[in-house]
Each structure stands twice: as structure tokens, then as C-alpha cells.
Amino acid sequence: xxxxxxxxxxxxxVRHVWHPCTQMKRxxxxxxxxIVRGDGVWLFDxxxxxxxxxxxSWWVNLFGHNQPRIxxxxxxxxxxxxxxxxxxxTHAPVVELSERLAVRTGLxxxxxxxxxxxxxxxxxxxxxxxxxxxxxxxKNRYIGLAGxxxxxxxxxxxxxxxxxxxxxxxPLVRIAHATPVxxxxxxxxxxxQAARIEQAVVALDAYLQRHADDTAALIVEPLVQCAAGFVxxxxxxxxxxxxxxxxxxxxxxxxxxxxxxxxTGTLLACEQAGVRPDFVCLSxxxxxxxxxxxxVLTTDTVYQAFWDDDAARGFLHSHSYTGNPxxxxxALATLELLDDARLRANAALAQRLDxxxxxxxxxxxLRHARRLGMIWAWDVVDAPGxxxxxxxxxxxxxxxxxxxxxxxxYFMPPxxxxxxxxxxxxxxxxxxxAEALR
Length: 438
Ligand SMILES: Cc1ncc(COP(=O)(O)O)c(C=O)c1O
Description:
Aspartate Aminotransferase, domain 2; 2 domains; Aspartate Aminotransferase, domain 1; alpha/beta; seven-stranded mixed β-sheet
């Protein structure tokens, strides 16, 4: 009997790998693309074809693939110790990382998780537990922003206001209140913007007047709600949220998982509003896209409420890989790369790229061109229902990894993209747009 031909990695993947955020039936005719190598902003498939990683591999990669400094930091740590549990033990990388994050954020206490959703759940649990420890156990509900996204584990889904992700699990979830956002697209003038902020603030104020006593925290994605379709709100709104949270004694949780680590131009997006949250969640770019790690940073006030002889008043939350030394070493190398000079260089680079992207800003089928830091987004006018997958496939054929969210096209490239790759990305996007709208 002839031997059956060896199956490709892509075919084997469809058989045994249940891919994330994917209706697997889509892969019946179009298997996933096998990637064998990465270098800078480029990924390479099994045929050696280059692809620009224009979305930083789900927003995690900051300094490109195959980054020598991050690789060296991980390798050096690998020769020392790869992993130890963080209960009862500690190690230099986690201590140094916590110290550096404290200096850069003003939040002194770091609790680690693995992915973004574990960080948002840690912050939400810690907030409610804080209120319990200070004698206000009734404060155990949450508020999120309309359209907010904070991860997809059951607790995080409570504050993730995206029906596609939540509807199937609604009976499992204790759904949080969603408060309106002054979407910058609806505010063409500063006057409109001020009025929209006021409307949103009045709505939240009215809710808090009735519910502050049962609300632990408000969780927000500061400045840009990426998964909602790149909904931008002005820093002034964030500052008003801080005021309301302080007035009504509700924690402000800044989920900076997507927008932190320099993505919006500052290390944390909150800095642009002059706001210090009670909790900051970081993940994704924290390790430069190398290893899974998340962290929740919080204040001394919160920390002190858990300091007690009674174990049950402590925060008894853990994950096996909490504070993994390799991941912390990658994060330390990433923070070294992401210094103030780099943030300034990013601002200049973003402006140069912005000029290159002019044909997209002016494209008759794109509107609401918007940018903050190294995030660009446009909404497609009259997009067909299947625009996103069609566009993504057409972009792949043209050498760009892009995944629109609904009818919103966006770029979120690594910070090492140069103008040549920027021009190639623009041309791929224009070509894919023409094909997907045909
Ligand atoms: C703002 C925000 N929070 C939380 C998450 C969840 O992170 P993870 O996918 O690592 O669980 C994401 C992921 O996209 C995110 O964008």
C-alpha cells in the first residue's frame, strides 16, 4: 500500500490545535498560515515569504521579532534558574521588575499573573477584597465602559461589554454596569467633545449616586478601547472618571494591557490625563512579546488593608507561573529598551509614518482617520458583512498581517517599523481594501 503523503503543519494544526478566537470551520478550506521565523517587523512563512507583522502579533510585540537584547536576557536567566514558585520564595528578576515598575508608575506593590485576563481578574478581586477588609463587604459590584474589553475568562467577561464574546456565556456571568463613553468620532469640535464628556460624566454620576455603596471598582481601557473597534476618548474624560471615583470611593482600575508600554506615546496612557489609578494592569507588551506575563500594580493603601495576622485577610490568589523569572527578565530588558529617548523617537517615527499613510487618511471609502502614538485606525464606509476576513486574506496575499475589527481597519506595528516597511504596509492595505470592497 502506498504510504499516505505527509500532511502539512497547517493541516495537522486544524486537526489537533483548537485555534483561539476562531470558528474552526473557516479553516476547512483555508488552513492557518504556518510561520517558521521572525525578524524585526517581518514574519516568514514556510516558503520564506515575508509578512509585515502590522498588528504586533495581537498587540504584544514592541521591538520586533528576534530581538537580541530580550533574547540575551532570557538566555542569561535560563542559565541561572528557569522557574521557581513565588510563594515563600523570591528571585532577583521579579524584585527588580517590581522596583522599576514602582518607580515608573508610582504604584508600589506588584502582583503577577500570566495573561491579561488573569490581571484584570486579580484587580477586580483585589478591589472587592479590599472593601471587605475595610468593613464594607457590600461594595462588590463593578462598572465598565460601554464596549469595554478586559479578557475572556468568566470573571473578566463580566466587564467585557462585547456581545459576540459574552452572549454564549451570559448565564455564567455577573454582568457589570456599562457606562457611556464620549467616542471622539462623535465629537468633531472641541465644544462637542466637552458636551459629550459632560453627558457621560452625568450618566456615571447618576449611577454612582445610587450604587456607590455596592460598587467596588470602575475598570477602563484608558484613551483607546482597542477591541471595541479603536474607540478613542479624550484624556479629559479619564481625569473626570478619576474625580468621580475619588468622590464616590470607588476604585479606578486602568486596564493598560493593550495601551500601556508606550503604545499611546507615554509609558502608561493614564499619564496623558495626569491620573494615578488605584490599580494598573499590564501584560501583552510587558515582555516585548516574548513570554506570557501580567502584573497588577496597586497603592500602599490597598496593600495595607491586606496586612494582617489573619491569612484570610491576605490576598490568597496564585497562578503556577506567577512572576516567572524568564518572563520577568524579558520584561526588564523591554523596560530598558523603552526609555524616554525611545518614547521620543517613537513620537517622531509615528509622525513620519502618518505622512506615509496619507492615501489611507484620504481614501474615499475610509473615514474617521485617527491616531494616538503607534495606533492608527480608520472605519470602512459601507463595508460588506464579511469585510474583515476578506480584507485579512487579501492583506496576507500582499504580505501584511492585518485583522480588521468589524469594519475598522487598524495598524499597531512594532516600534521598530521603518519607513520602507511602512510604505509596503500602506500599499498592501490599499490593495487589500480594493479587493475586499470589490
Ligand atoms: C484591554 C485588554 N484587556 C485584557 C485583555 C486580555 O488579555 P489576554 O488575551 O492576554 O487574556 C486584552 C486582550 O486583547 C485587552 O486588549
